[in-house]
Design brief:
This protein is of the alpha+beta class. Helix content is 31%, strand content 23%. The protein is built from 20 helices and 30 strands. The strands form seven sheets. It has a nine-stranded mixed beta sheet. It has a six-stranded antiparallel beta sheet with strand order 6-7-3-5-4-9. Helix 8 crosses helix 9, helix 17 crosses helix 18 and helix 18 packs across helix 19.
């Protein structure tokens, strides 16, 4: 039933238990009230309705969804194609009788179905297309819907709202099962599905356990063992399933070609509506409570048992070996970085350095800047990540003082813990909860020895054996959870900047994915970060250290050479003309290095070499060091030097500042 005058319609809707508000007739679809949210809690009075709709001003009519209107919900289709596709599913799954009870309206851009639910529904998107554009949503608590007979002026498209079937003064009350049927069918239109988070990598397998299971598993049998039933095969070739505890209706679909399980129902634990699950994720959730590590271990054990029963070694080799031809055709995903080219986003990274070198300062910057997506140590950060900094050797006050001294911004995206649960009190479970429940992507532990003190002591093992087991366990945890785990560890007394400098033995680095060894002489403002590992390019980074912050200043080898050149240039300038031996004596540099660099500096025009093998500052007419040419003398107008270099009969002109020319020396 729909009256033609707005005041009568508004009164009818209100008497039917719908909260009504006026809408502007200016194409904005906005309420014609300064404040409308109070009508989410009570119905308007008749005087208010007459004031809104009986004053001669053209207005549209909207009803407030949710509890105030008897748990009213509006199924909103944003296009005619989505509405037609929903109708096809209704017919295919035999729900015509249910849907025909619902009032239906044509909106300027799509269609509405109206119904009441047993409980107020949240407003939520139900389906998007491949591009992510909205197809269907349900308007519930906190939302309103413009309804017939609102005029064309309300909508920017300039088209009216028309009631096609039913009566908005008699919106039907549905059961929980009927609501689930309708919403599940609408979700079946979704083409933009979020995959369920999962980690499939299992260290040591030639082919990952999860991948093998995804390819080979009989998922339908597994689902049926847990109470799911196949409802029907759709026209699209997909199988539609009904959740446990329900006799009919669409709760999810299985896409054999994609090997993916799409869930529509909000009442199908442990699965979430609107997500896609691989076979391995299904197995893990149903059989192992969501613990991917346990699931992988169980599948490996089952595979080994089956292999042994089928005849052992040959079967195992056939199952695990891969040809290099197959490997060459594998499309490996690009490495994802937490810190560009230095710290991968997945795996275990160990920062190693002597006590007092500044490791904790480096980790503090890593935690706070990575949490905000800012450069770390002067290196690019692809994106911000949620951080947990477990600083077991510091107190909160000290860390806050350090943050202020280092001028680092505080971030709510970085969690700080200065204490941790011992293993027997749930330390491992708490670490997993950081990742799975709090969304942490990077865990920083300072230090390994402090972490070791929280773990049970194992009789019969020495310190190295215990730490090696701990490191291996942390690496497996990082890979299983798909996170970046950074651990600080002390160097031993070795002068080497190699794996042998890691306290205990070089073998301790074996389970680690990436190692960063920090070196710096006491009192020096510069140091080196040597980086090496499985996926990172091996590199030595020259680092400046201010006492609170580390910053990359270049490649360590190039930086060292530049410093040597500067010292050689100063010596030659002081001596006027000198042999390699004299320069070596003045600079204290190795004779071989001095001789090599003198030859290079002469070749590129920085120095000139006499017939008797001595070197001096180049005095050619084009030399920037003569001070005899040019209107502005040695440094030019802006203190710059034009350095002409000749190599392979090609003359190249480079412009340096005076400071750069002196420091670099060509």
């Amino acid at each position: 039933m729909l009256r033609t005058d707005f005041i009568s319609t508004a009164v009818c809707y209100t008497e039917a238990g719908l909260s009504v508000i006026p809408v502007r007739a200016d194409g904005s679809k906005a309420p014609a009230l300064k404040e409308w949210t109070s009508f989410q809690h009570h119905l308007p009075s008749e005087d208010e309705l007459r004031q809104w709709f009986g004053n001669g001003v053209k207005r549209g009519v909207a009803v407030v969804c949710g509890a105030v209107s008897g748990n009213l919900a509006v199924l909103d289709f944003d296009s005619e194609d989505a509405f037609i596709a929903f109708g096809d599913l209704v017919v295919e799954h035999g729900l015509q009788q249910l849907v025909s009870r619902l009032p239906c309206a044509k909106t300027p851009a799509g269609f509405h179905y109206y119904f009441r639910a047993p409980e107020a529904l949240p407003t939520q998107v139900l389906a998007r297309n491949e591009k992510g554009e909205l197809l269907v949503e349900v308007r519930g608590e906190g939302a309103y819907a413009i309804v017939p007979p609102s005029p064309a002026e309300v909508h920017p498209d300039g088209k009216p709202y028309e009631l096609l079937t039913g009566d908005l003064c008699a919106v039907p009350q549905l059961t929980a099962e009927e609501v689930e049927d309708i919403l599940s069918l609408a979700r079946a239109l979704n083409r933009k599905v979020e995959p369920a988070p999962q980690v499939l990598r299992v260290t040591g397998d030639a082919k990952r356990v999860g991948d093998r299971y995804n390819e080979q598993a009989d998922v339908l049998t597994l689902l049926q063992q847990h109470g799911w039933t196949v409802y029907r095969e759709g026209r699209d070739g997909n199988l539609y399933l009904t959740r446990p505890g329900k006799e009919r209706g669409v709760s999810a679909s299985w896409h054999e070609g994609l090997r993916m399980f799409y869930v529509f129902s909000t009442n199908a634990p442990p699965f979430e509506a609107g997500r896609a699950y691989s076979p391995f994720a299904i197995y893990t959730l149903l059989e192992h409570g969501g613990d991917f590590s346990k699931a992988a271990k169980a599948l490996r054990q089952e595979s080994n048992t089956q292999t042994a029963s089928r005849g052992g070694v040959t079967e195992w080799l056939q199952q695990h070996a891969v040809t290099f031809s197959e490997l060459a055709q594998t499309d490996f995903p690009p490495i994802e970085w937490a810190v560009e080219n230095v710290i991968p986003a997945c795996g275990l990274t160990m920062l190693v350095g002597k006590k007092g070198i500044g490791k904790s300062w480096a980790l503090l910057e890593l935690a706070l800047n990575l949490a905000q997506g800012c450069p770390v140590w002067g290196l690019p950060v692809p994106k911000a990540r949620r951080i947990a900094y477990i600083a077991l050797e510091d107190a909160p006050r000290r860390l806050e003082e350090r943050r202020r001294l280092a001028f680092l911004e505080a971030s709510s995206n970085a969690l700080l813990l200065t204490q941790w649960l011992p293993a027997e009190q749930g330390g491992r479970e708490a670490l997993r909860a950081l990742v799975r429940e709090l969304g942490v992507e990077v865990v920083i532990i300072d230090t390994l020895s402090a972490w070791r003190s929280l773990l049970p002591q194992t009789n019969g093992r020495n310190v190295w054996q215990e730490e090696h087991a701990i490191v291996r366990d942390l690496q497996q945890f990082a890979m299983e959870e798909g996170i970046c785990l950074v651990v600080a560890h002390h160097r031993n007394k070795s002068a080497s900047a190699d794996v042998d400098s890691i306290a205990g033995t070089g073998g301790l680095s074996a389970p680690v994915d990436t190692v960063i060894i920090a070196t710096r002489s006491r009192g020096e403002a510069e140091g080196v970060f040597r980086v090496f590992g499985r996926d990172v390019p091996e590199q030595e980074l020259a680092m400046a250290y201010t006492g609170t912050r580390w910053t990359v200043i270049g490649d360590a080898r190039e930086h060292a050479i530049s410093e040597e050149r500067r010292r050689i240039l100063e010596a030659v300038r002081e001596l006027g003309e000198a042999s390699p031996r004299e320069v070596a004596d003045v600079t204290g540099l190795p004779y071989g290095s001095v001789k090599h660099l003198l030859l290079r500096m002469a070749a590129n025009g920085t120095l000139q070499k006499s017939r008797d093998g001595k070197y001096s500052i180049h005095r050619s007419p084009h030399s920037p060091f003569t001070g005899e040419h040019g209107e502005h003398g040695e440094h030019g107008e802006h203190g710059e030097r034009n350095i002409t270099t000749t190599r392979n009969n090609t003359t190249r002109m480079r412009v340096f500042t005076a400071e750069e020319a002196f420091a670099y020396g060509g």
